[in-house]
Every structure is written in C-alpha cells, then in structure tokens.
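Milestone M4 deliverable, item 7.
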Amino acid sequence: MLQLITKAVTDRGAQGIAAAVSRLVHSGELPAGARLPTVRAIARELGVSPTTVSEAWSWLTRAGLIATRGRSGTIVLGGDRLRSRLRYARLAPGVAAATDLSTGVPDHELLPELTESLRRLGAEPLTTSYLDDPVLPALEAHLLDHWPYAAQQLTVVDGALDALDRVVRAHVRFGDRVLVENPTFPPILDLIDAAGATAVPVALDRQGITPDSLALGLEAGALMLILQPRAHNPTGVSMTGRRASDLAALLTSHPSVIVVEDDHAADITSAPPVSLGCFLPGRTVHIRSYAKSLGPDLRLAVVGGPVSVLAPVVDRRMLGPGWSSRLLQHILLDLLASPSTAILLETARSEYARRRLALLAALAQEGAVATADDGINLWLEVADERAALVALAAHGVAVAPGAPFEAAPLGQDHVRVTVGLVRDGFPELASVLAAAARAVPRGGARSRSFPRGTR
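Output delivered:
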C-alpha cells in the first residue's frame, strides 16, 4: 500500500498528496476499511517532512475520506460513515413530531398547480438530439431578460445544491480556502469539506456580510466566496444594495476570488434582487432556485455567470446527465410567463411575511430574541440547544438544531424554525418556543446536539 500511494503522488506538497490519496479512495484502489501507512513512513518514502503529510491527512479527514483511530492507525472511510458526518443529515428530528418545523420547505398550499402547464405542453418533442443546447432557447431568453446583471452564459441544473456542488467541484481543490457566511446552510459546509477545502467564516449583520469580516477573510487567501444574497438560511437576512457595493469594492483588489450567490428563495422574498454581479460580472456566479417558489419536485435551478467559470461546469456535465429535463424546463417557462403565477407568488410573499411578523411579534411579547427578516425561516436564540430541542419535542414540536449551521462557534446557541409552515396559533407557539429558549439542562452543564467547531 505504501508503494501504491507514493507512486500516485506527482506533487509532493500537502495539497498534491491529499489529492493523490483522494483519487485512490474514489477509484476504489484504497477500499473502505484499509489501514494507511504511518505518516512517517509516507514522509520518508516521498522525501518530505512528516508535517507535510500530516497536513494532507488533515484535509482528507475534513473531506470525510479517512479517520484516525488512535493505536489502530488511520483508515479509509466508507460511504455509510461519511453520511454520519454530514451536517445536513443532522437537521432532521430523531423522532416524528406533530408539528415539524425543522424541514425548511415551503408551504405546499402556496405553490402553483402544475396541471394547466402540463396540458399546454403539447405533443411536440422537446429533445431532438443528445447534443441539443442544455437550456431551451425560449427559457434562456426569458431568464436573461430577468437576470439581475448581464450574464455571459446560463445553464439549468437539478436544484441549487446541484449547482453549488458542480461549481465547487469545478473550481475548488484540496487545501483551498472558501469564504462562507457564519451561520450558513449546512450542505454548503458539507460540500466544502467534501472538496477537501477549508471554510473560512465571515460574519453577518442585518445588511449581509460585514465588510470588516470579509476583508479579514480575503487576507486569508480564499479563492471563492459563497453567499446567500436574499432570505439567508437560517437568519432571513437579505443583503442591501449599499452593502453589495461595499463588498464589491473590497473584492476588486482580489481579482482571483470567484463569487457564488445562492438565491434559493428568489421569487418569494420581500427584498429586491441584489447581486455582486452588478459590480463584478466577470467573476460572479448567480444561482436562482425555484424549489421554494414553484415546488421542490420541479428540481430546477438556473446558473448564470461568466463563461470562464460556467464552461467547465457545462462541459463536465455533458459526460454525465447532459442536461436537465427539457420537459421540466418547458413547465418552468410556462409558469414564469404566466400572469396567474405572478399573482400566486405575490400572495405567497405577502403570506410568508405575515407569518414571520406574527411569530416575531408573539416571541417579542414572550421576551425571546429571534430574526426572520425574509423568506421562510426564523433564527431563535436559546440558552441551550439540546435542552431546547428536548423541551420542544415534549410539546410535539420539531425544529432544526443551530450548531450544524455554524462555520465557527457563534457564542450563542440557536435553533431554526420553519416559520413559513406556521399558518395560525402564533401566540401559543411563541409561548412554547420561548419556554424552550429558556430551558437549561439538568445540572446546568451546556450541551449541544452537534459539537462546536466540528465539520
């Protein structure tokens, strides 16, 4: 095994060693459960310092590919063990709840019916060749007319996470640094870990990423910034135009940094479209998802940005699925062009805003602290995460633990509540949530469902 690893290494830096071992794991040449040679043995064979190999092992550990078992040495992990490490997997409640507010999904009653769109499809085939453009021309024209800035290229993929995964895989390598909001959507951190990269947290206020925090993160040598410009999950913060301008000014002096915007709740947000692409179109990728507004099962998101960033994504996809269903694209176009959809979306925006404001007001009456500026989520401060989850479960209420959202410790425990699913009974729910927010574990020792600082 020692010879297998050392022969695979062409770059003897930590990043090169990690990349070589990663290829061997994914190819199956290093199977799950295999015990790796010692750090010193590999360092001696490669003629590098043990510190270099240890750094490579750290990246592989964060990526979930290997784990150190004390005296048992370092072993290759299998897919089942990788799943147990995912932050995303820790959001679901452990038991069924009468009121499940942990999901982060939209209210199905506020989504459009697809029946009429399906009837209008007609019998004309939508795909004439496997080499057809991946985006329907009519859909592309509509999207370009409504994009927040002049994008050189658009493509359609299977949801926002698919878009983020493909962009990260195309442009992020082992050892790279990626700037992320703190807190942020847990799968973003999982994707960065899977790439063997390091998430560098940047702080938020009620206007978006703070300039001071971004400046510090840029000095750390990051090559990508991933942010949610509107209805930030979990806090609900939407970036202001002024803040976007300030952030763009900082990024101007770091021309190699790619900006990736996840506009996951685009058409149901109250805030207007804001994008760093208005200032930095040559290196901003904007992702617009329709899961929250038109339905999760539509499974579509549009990615727009410079050819230099998107071309590798589109080209690599041709070797896999090739394109997202043109049948679904046709439905998307029909919905986006329909006046009835515009009316429904306006109704959904107003209703989600009503629900947010009603629960925020009721929580304030109870003395609880929460934010929910936009979108469908509410970020509630709690004295102790685990105690709050247990207290809510006793009332048949499930919410998402806050720790998986943290790129770095926030200093205050939280839970995320999908307020978009709460239609009525705000005072009663607020009373239950506020009591849970005050709950502390027996003995007063702090506990969490997900350890701080781990990924």
